[in-house]
Amino acid sequence: MKDNRKDTTIWRNYIEKYRFLIREYEQVKRKEHPVYKLAQDFYKAHDTCGKSFLKYYNRYKQSGSDKDLEPRKRGPKYKTRRPLKFIENKVIELREKGNSKFEIVNILKPSLHKFTPSLSGVYNICKRYGMNRLTVKMKVNKRRIIKEKMGQLGHIDCHHLSKSIITGQSRKLYLVCLVDDHSRLAWAEVVEDITSLTVMFAALKCLNMLNDQYSIKFEEILSDNGPEFGPRESKQKQGHPFERMLFEVGIKHRYTKPYRPQTNGKIERFWRTLQEDLIRETNFDSLKELKDELIQYLYYYNHHRPHQGIDGKCPADMCIKDEQ
Predict the structure, then answer these.
(1) pLDDT single digits (tens) 263-298
(2) Are residues 221 and 193 in the same domain?
């Protein structure tokens, strides 16, 4: 009973806060507020995200119900996407005839149009029915630019998250991720700032996880020219946390060309995939939940999600191939 009363109090305070913000906001809109002249001043003073506030405000104005002021939790897309049954049946039928996933997509596209499953969607259907063993070797020109073995080159970068990613909060959060060039195995850490010291410790965690889980020992790491990764001038490198860490573990640091993010394209593609699968349209109740979901997604990405850049294999499959 005590816990229930505590939860009720928290929700009541949350609703009262939003009612207060709505009254203040409407005064600003009518240009009657004694302090704030612009909406952006109002958002800044109350440390709230304008986009997030307006979402709840518009819901509330349409219905007038306090329930529309409560957060609506949505799960990650990669856990919920399932095709219609008749599409699954068509994929299975074509797979039984020996077609690869590339051929299945091309065969279905003229009849299904926008409902055609993606390559990863076809793979997941085949996997669910135990039919995911490849029978046709894929020849992809991109394969020629991948390093010959794991650990020859790693790609590292930082990614900004939305301030409203945690429900009811407005805080700065970032991701630091390291991707192996050959296998595309990846690991990421959530951090609250991207100072050089914080990024150094996050990068060290990524190095240790990829080493412990997949026995990857990097020879070189490629980063952009951000200050968190250190200066290009050799005289100043020894005093920089990230540069010093790489020096101590025996890893060479390489930089991308200025204003050329394509040089670090593999990790840029990872950010896009992560955004589409896990982050976009997803609310997290706490920082702990965000970190837990990220770990689950990284396991899915490394072990179950097929990657077009490595002939449709999963990154973990490349790890097994190297061991053989």
Answers:
(1) 788 899 999 999 999 998 888 999 999 999 999 999
(2) yes
